[in-house]
Design a protein that fits this description.
The chain has 303 residues and is an alpha+beta fold. Helix content is 38%, strand content 20%. It has one domain. The chain is globular.
């Protein structure tokens, strides 16, 4: 069960929507931890070159991330983590320690937490993606974004490309980031895969020829993907660490919640309000009306 439901109207789509973050709540750990960490290990073994990248001059910043996360997990989850000869590790899972041995510090850090970890570094072209562990991408890949400045990373997003007001706001926010912040995003995908890459080229194909993706049973086939994102400027390197935590539930999960009416109505309202370019970007052009109808039924169902 996810505790974050930005699709209910609490967070506006395609808005920056930053909120202050108490560092005590920086990393979230729940009952899906073991399954998600096992999936990270599988992805590192099968598509490792696609889920981890790092520029050679980021080693000290990577170590800074590992040190911060190690201290945080020991302090806030002492029953789940312990100090070992190889570093901090989750209790009862030697595979995670073995999977990170002799790996870069950011790789090791990624096997402590369910979050993906992205390092952004300032340079002549602005803030760029300098290193990252992205095992659970939401329709993008590290290899196509690696080394790019912020405006190029966001180019496919409506109203976030180079020269837009949002592009300028994000760069100023990164420059002036003093306190940790968080934001939320959501999308809808077919199936419950955590590893969900889609290149910009693939996205273009999908929007040029929209077609239904969820078969006959929208409630079961359409999965709501929630991203909890945090931003924190590292005290030594001054790089910005961007974390992304993924929560996945089938659309039908909403119907089983005590607050299903509020959630379904809010979600349907967000979808109805989306212009075509936003629906295209999220891959919902062909399915929006079917999803809205399913949500309306959840909101009126008395059972």
């Amino acid at each position: 069960m996810t505790k974050h439901t930005p699709y209910d109207g609490a967070s506006t789509p395609f808005a920056i929507g930053l909120k202050p973050l108490d560092l005590a709540d920086w990393i979230e750990l729940d009952e899906t931890y073991d399954a998600q960490m096992a999936e990270k290990l599988r992805l590192y073994k099968t598509v490792g070159d696609k889920v981890f990248v790092a520029q050679p001059d980021t080693e000290s910043a990577q170590q800074e991330v590992l040190d911060l996360l190690s201290a945080h997990m020991l302090a806030h989850y002492p029953d789940r983590f312990k100090q070992t000869a190889d570093g901090v590790a989750a209790t009862g899972d030697p595979a995670l320690v073995a999977g990170a041995r002799d790996k870069p510090p950011l790789h090791k850090a990624s096997l402590l937490v369910q979050e993906d970890l992205i390092l952004m570094r300032h340079g002549q072209t602005g803030w760029r993606l300098a290193a990252g562990s992205l095992c659970f991408p939401s329709s993008w890949t590290l290899t196509e974004k690696f080394g790019l400045p912020m405006h190029a990373i966001h180019q496919p997003v409506p109203d976030f490309g180079k020269g837009t007001r949002n592009d300028e706001l994000i760069n100023r926010m990164f420059d002036r980031l003093h306190q940790p912040v968080q934001r939320f995003n959501w999308s809808i995908q077919a199936g419950g895969a955590l590893y969900h890459p889609l290149s910009n080229e693939g996205r273009q194909d999908r929007t040029d020829h929209p077609s239904p993706r969820f078969g006959d049973d929208v409630d079961a086939a359409a999965f709501v993907r929630v991203e909890r994102q945090t931003l924190r400027k590292l005290p030594q390197s001054r790089d910005v660490l961007f974390t992304i935590r993924i929560y996945l539930n089938p659309l039908g999960w909403i119907a089983r919640q005590p607050e299903r009416v509020r959630l379904a109505q809010g979600f349907a309202g967000q979808l109805r309000a989306m212009p075509r370019e936003q629906l295209d970007y999220k891959g919902l052009t062909a399915d929006r009306d079917r999803i809205v109808a399913a949500l309306d039924a959840m909101a009126t169902d008395e059972n």
